[in-house]
Amino acid sequence: MIKAIIGKIIGTRNDRWIKQYKKQVLTINALEPTYEKMSDDELQNAFEELKKRVRSTEKDLQEKTLLEVLPESFAIT
Question: What are the coiled-coil residue ranges (predicted)?
Answer without folding.
Answer: 40-67
